[in-house]
Amino acid sequence: MKLNANPALVAAPLFGLLIPLTLQSPAWASTEVSEEVHEKCLKASDYLGCVEAQTEGISPITTSNNIDRFGLQTPRGAVAHTRRDGAISYFFPDSVVAVKNKNKYGRYLSWRYIYHYNDPGTPGYWKPGTQTCTGVGSLKKCVQTASVFVRGRPSGPRSLSWRVDGDCIDYTAKWEKDGKPWQSLKGGRSFESEKLEEAREILQSYCPKIDQLKQSPRAI
User: Fold this and answer.
1) Which pLDDT score is estimated for 86?
2) Half-sphere exposure at residue 187, Cβ-oriented, CA atoms within 13 angstroms
3) What is the mean pLDDT of residues 112-129?
4) CB-side exposure of 178: number of CA atoms within 13 Å?
5) Of 45, 105, 123, 129, which residue is least crowded by CB atoms under 10 Å?
6) What 3-state class would DSSP assign to 141?
7) Which carries the bigger pLDDT value, residue 79 or residue 169?
């Protein structure tokens, strides 16, 4: 079954797809690669080399030590998008696979990304003790519990790995382990949620060629 992107959802990419990370960039930067170049290089054995051959004067998102703005290692083979809050989403094109449902392929796909962000942390605090009493008068008895100090969560850079399942017919997506149901990617752009916009662009790029994707034995 060959699927085409929903024409009501197709628009110029809100974020664009960024070039994979490299060790050779002298400074951290955010540079977009056109959709035409991305599509041309997607199947190349050396994606970065292909992009560099097609584009002049670009600077990948990285540092000279392959460390990003959070001091975390930049994953190899990833395509990076810097979100408005400064967090970085690293999408892995090679992770996109078709997954089966009811023992059939052609509708669902899956992909993986890593999310780097700064956790502001939470302060510690004292939880007051409690007093519980039973009985009345001379029979009244009370039990007092001591106050307890609840430790806060330290601030600092964090790295989370996510796997996402996408439905190429209903245009919905589900993030593994977040406890939420399938989320709709229809109804126009969602400026409140950049992760939905990223998922929308991935479905638009890969759903039309789902029959060409590697097939995962995993079922949903």
Assistant:
1) 84
2) 7
3) 94
4) 15
5) 45
6) strand
7) 169
Stated length of the chain = 220
Q: Which residue has tokens 């070039």?
A: 19
CA distance 166 to 204: 11
Return the ∠ at Cα 116 (arms to 23 and 24), rounded to 5°: 10
User: How many CA atoms does the CB half-sphere of 212 hold within 13 Å?
Assistant: 9
Q: Smallest Cα–Cα separation from 64: which of 20, 19, 29, 17?
A: 29
Residues 6+ apart with CB under 8 A from 75: 21, 90, 92, 114
Q: Are 42 and 93 in contact (CB under 8 A)?
A: yes
pTM, 2 dp: 0.66
Query: Would you say 61 and 21 are in contact if contact means Cβ atoms under 8 Å apart?
Result: yes
Tokens of 53: 């051959």
Phi-psi region of 89 (alpha: psi -120 to 50; beta: other; left: phi over 0): beta
For the chain, percent helix, then strand, then coil, each to nearest 5?
A: 20, 35, 50
In a 10 Å sphere around its CB, with 0-12 CB exposed, 13-18 middle and 19+ buried, how is residue 117 labelled? middle
Question: Pairing relation of β-strands 104-119 and 97-101?
Answer: antiparallel
Segments in the chain forming alpha helices (H): 35-41, 47-54, 194-206
Whole-angstrom distance, CA of residue 108 vs CA of residue 210: 8
Q: How many helices (H) and strands (E) does the chain have?
A: 3, 14
Q: Are 48 and 20 in contact (CB under 8 A)?
A: yes
